[in-house]
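Folds abound. A case:
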Amino acid sequence: MLITSQPSRPGFEAIVKNEGFKCAFITHDPMYAYGAVTEMKRHNLTDELFVLMEGKATLLIREGETMSEYTLEPGKSYNVTAGTWHYLGVSEDAMLFVTEAGNTDKTNTDVLTLTQEYRLQEK
């Protein structure tokens, strides 16, 4: 059997989920906005793979006290390894494909509140 899918709502939308992995779309939503970044997250049990399909997106990665921005290129995969603090900013017309472990949820994801906001600009 073949099943096709496309995003039907803003933000993170899982389209396939089983014990081993979860596939989803990410589209524009306030939680993925450019501008003032006040929180970052990290998944403790899984890598997270992003592929930009349309629009623009920027990954913000924190290693120690260093912040690095990565402008995603369409069709190229970006793997954020388990335990890496990250934030994703997406344009209003963006669509990304993302995959991670099927059991990824709030119980195994940490949230870091930044003591000083970071300004992430759309490029």
User: Anything to note?
Assistant: Residues 35 and 120 are 5 Å apart (CA to CA). The beta strands are 11-17, 22-27, 35-43, 48-54, 57-63, 66-71, 77-80, 85-90, 95-100, 109-120. The radius of gyration is 14 Å.
